[in-house]
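Below: protein 1.
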Amino acid sequence: MAAAAPVWSVDPRTGKRRERVALEATTDAVDTAVRAAHTARGALADRPPRAALLRRAADLLDAAGEEIVAAADAETALGPARLTGELARTTYQLRSFAAIVDEGGFLDVLIDRPDPGLTPPRPDLRRYKIPLGAVAVYAASNFPLAFSVPGGDTASALAAGCPVVVKAHPDHPATSELCAGLLRRAAVETGLPADAVGLVHGFRAGVDLVRHPLIAAAGFTGSVRGGRALYDAAAARPHPIPFHGELGSLNPVVVTEAAAVERAERIGAGLAGSMTLGTGQFCVKPGLVLAPEGAAGDRLLASLASAAAATEAGVLLDHRMRDAFLDGVRDRTRLPGVQAPLAPGDGDGEHTVGAGFLTVAAARLADGGPHDLLLEECFGPVTVVARYADDAEIGAVLARLPGNLTATLQLGDAESAGTDPAGRGARLLAEVTPLAGRVVVNGWPTSVAVAPAQHHGGPYPAATSTSTSVGATAVERWLRPVAYQDTPPALLPPELRDGNPLGLPRRIDGRAEGA
């Protein structure tokens, strides 16, 4: 048997190895990690220790903030300011899930008392949700904290009562080890097994993880290709499991002519800021913009060009992504009718990339063929502006788009107020709603608030399920309902007993208890 391969931390600013961090997990090592997590399930059964774990993890991450930010910046080149903000988001998210665990509404307790007079007669039914079991989490490349080891998938799974085994992303293994160590320490300090959180490295480990019979569900953030392969593996198991994947998204933007007339310069500058945020490595980066032909659209493009040109060249997460970005821009630029008013591409010739945008007539996108490439995500600081002649061309392009995380509308004042005679605002809202999990109006999609009403998902390939990976309802991914019928009171779980001994929000016979 071959020796396990070393895992190296690499500096994306130079492409050079920084340090040897760990060894890639063998199949046996994955099995050990999963079995340890599976054994930890019972310890996570009670809500108070879970809430304590989440809060203690947040405290330890905050206390180690300087070290975490330095490690993450060395491996991702995302910069201390961005990573400090991401760490704050991560710890806020952990504490938010702790509050959700305390409140208990996520258990969705429903009680229907027996009624023999109904047709058919109704027995005593009591329903709530229970954790699925050990969960596999696949860390994202572009968010080394908020969508990785201590991120939303991990936090929501622990909140649900599910132990977690994280497959680290190869772009930030040292950061992953550091954060996993803090989460395991938090577990021990709150009286829980360290194995409530496990960590493995390596491509093969990722495949072994999703195939392991004791893994009950999986969460993934990454590419369409990688996510679809794991999704298929999850479905091909003798006992298929839920696979909640966030894969890829174009995040279309529609700018109406009225909006361009009223505020072309502001829209152009806002678009530049959104598409270049994090060097264009956000999953909600606007990758396709439908803008009007004519003078107002020209003003918008001039503003976009000026603002994007002022953006410094940046480093992508690794050199493989840099090569893919340059190849993607090159392939798109070669298509007939595609122009590059501000050519994106090579920055310093070795490590960085420069921001830019491409333009094309919207009619070409409606025709299909080789221009379909422009309807695929290109990871990095580039967007495609499709110039439309009329509303029919907007509709024709939207009709060809796959599922997205977001869709954005930039509307004129009357369109926003619903007072435009054509009803364009309402019509466009209805057109984009089937395309995305979140619709943004007169803003930009590259801010994903952690809030109860948030939805971060969308139709395939944006996501492989209808769930969200951000916000309070992300916990629902790791739960399943179970109903007890005519069960003797002494045998019922405390959550379902008369008198509500745990003080949970519950509905009885269709009404909130106590209402």
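Below: protein 2.
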Amino acid sequence: MGQHSPARTQGEWWRSAVIYQVYVRSFADGDGDGTGDLAGVRAKLPYLAELGVDALWFNPWYLSPMADGGYDVADYRSIDPAFGTLAEAEKLIAEARELGIRTLVDIVPNHVSDQHAWFRAALAAGPGSPERELFHFRPGRGEHGELPPNDWPSQFAGSTEPVWTRLPDGEWYLHLFTPEQPDLNWAHPAVRQEHEDVLRFWFERGVAGVRIDSAALPAKDPDLPDFVEGHDPHPFVDRDELHDIYRSWRAVADAYDGIFVGEVWLPDTERFARYLRPDELHTAFNFSFLSCPWDAGRLRTSIDETLAEHAPVGAPATWVLCNHDVTRTVTRYGRTDTGFDFATKAFGTPTDLALGTRRARAAALLSLALPGAVYVYQGEELGLPEAEIPRESIQDPMHFRSGGTDPGRDGCRVPLPWTAEAPHAGFGGEPWLPQPADWPAYAADHQAADPASMLALYRAALRIRRTEPGFGDGPLTWLPTPEGVLAFARTDGTLCVVNLSDTPTELPGHTQLLLTSGPLDAEGHLPQDTAAWLRP
């Protein structure tokens, strides 16, 4: 265990960091009530230090009615009692930092909870009040105002629900997500001021960075016009006004040496890169790589395009295989369709977990060898599959707003298995989502004792990435390979080879085999769906 090397914790640490995503509700339950909490995370800090991560990104841990997994924030300055207290959060931030691990928190600028003090005041104040100017309240259309003010589509994939809710006083309010998440009016100076104050509040408590949820959505066309496919500018996505907001945020962060990572889903690479200009966000999530199928040509294209779109603004790329919203990697890679698309999620999709696990192991080495920062979602280092949640136990609003056709995101949010022989696989009390019967087989203590486990692979890969020169931010050079094989060299010549073809492939010349995702064959060749790191 022990602290991380100074090279990875000084200066622009974020350009090469490995950041572990903690979905607190499902990580570890310290008080036995079935919900993960900060006490549980604090107890597992030695595990995270031994894993070798540089930072922890926490999904929202604030006071929330949990209408959307905490992304409906009622108070940014309070920790939800289900998770603990503000004092515990401060202790967690400090204890992690002593182990060389930084902390990132989540901010959700597009909306707040309908239980937020601002929205409750707006409801009480009535039409035309200053309190309602903090949100988007409008009269309806139609003879009696019975129709929504516009026809904007919901931002929940597959949802046919309206994005407007009518109140008894006749006015409607906008919510791009659920009715419990009213959208804020970012044209109002008080909204901007409050969020800058919230940033300072957390930076002053030792947070090193902030992840910005739905970062391209907060600004709206003030006229709230109907949605016209292909019309530019879009009425609520990627509006130019956003950049002034994020420049103001950057000034706040720079005063604390803090960093931002934006959740920016945009198909236009040039517009995506605008968010990463030197006076805006430091980094943004890379969704093309996350959703890319297990195909050598398409992965190489995704990698090349990602590096190319970051290069003009000098920002490091980020790489992620999975998060709290998408199908777990071992399940996705074991399916006929190995890509990810919210629109294609369905119940009962068959998967070959052995195949998916082999590919996920190779993908781990691929992602960890690429230039820039890497995000690892909790449980990926255990090779957890997507759980099939019984319909009667599903809690995700995405499922209900799809009319029950979308299985939702609960399958990747099942509480983690820590101890194979303990009740509930060592998570704590009876989990808030049911664990599959085979969960103990994936338990961290079981894997820690197995040198062939997914956990052992991640620990070894992170140790090498931290101690060997050439990993992290910097150039990448592709090497000539047979079809279906990816191979590239990093800054000091360290090689990564990934075989996605149907046959074993010869390894390029090397002096040392640093790590493989699976054993070589009898001839010393790299088998199908296997990756290797080599010293030249």
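The first strand starts at residue 18 and ends at 22.
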